[in-house]
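We were asked to recover a plausible sequence for a given structure. The inputs and outputs are reproduced exactly as logged, with field labels preserved.

PROBLEM: sequence recovery
POSITIONS: 136
GIVEN STRUCTURE:
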């Protein structure tokens, strides 16, 4: 039997994946996409916003992850994401509304607007939409 990885995906709200046996994990590392196969060296990497995919018995599943960290240790991949959404569960229209609202708040230029937070909300919504479009 071929060697497998054990995948865990944890967000502050809940654990989305627990001890899932997979063949490969592809992650949006901060400096570019990173693939993990069995036997990968021990590492800790900061995640960017984007697509996290895993392959299991010839099938691929995809999540939009919104930053965090990943730890690879002894064929266990622990993904500690600030947020994550399964591609098939992302509501594209809701993401468009989030972008619209954030852009409107930025255009008002009110003193009480948190510009950094509005920009992050736009980036997160765009990351989710990009993952969703790959599944349409």
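RECOVERED SEQUENCE:
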């Amino acid at each position: 039997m071929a060697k497998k990885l054990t995948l865990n995906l944890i967000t502050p709200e809940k654990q989305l994946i627990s001890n899932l046996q997979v063949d490969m994990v592809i992650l949006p590392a901060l400096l570019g996409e990173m693939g993990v196969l069995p036997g990968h060296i021990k590492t800790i990497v900061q995640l960017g916003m984007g697509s996290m995919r895993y392959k299991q018995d010839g099938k691929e599943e995809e999540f939009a992850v919104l930053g965090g960290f990943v730890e690879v240790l002894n064929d266990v991949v622990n993904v500690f994401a600030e947020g994550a959404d399964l591609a098939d569960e992302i509501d594209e229209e809701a993401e468009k509304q989030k972008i619209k609202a954030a852009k409107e708040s930025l255009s008002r230029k009110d003193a009480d607007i948190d510009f950094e937070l509005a920009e992050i909300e736009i980036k997160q919504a765009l990351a989710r939409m990009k993952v969703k479009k790959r599944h349409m």
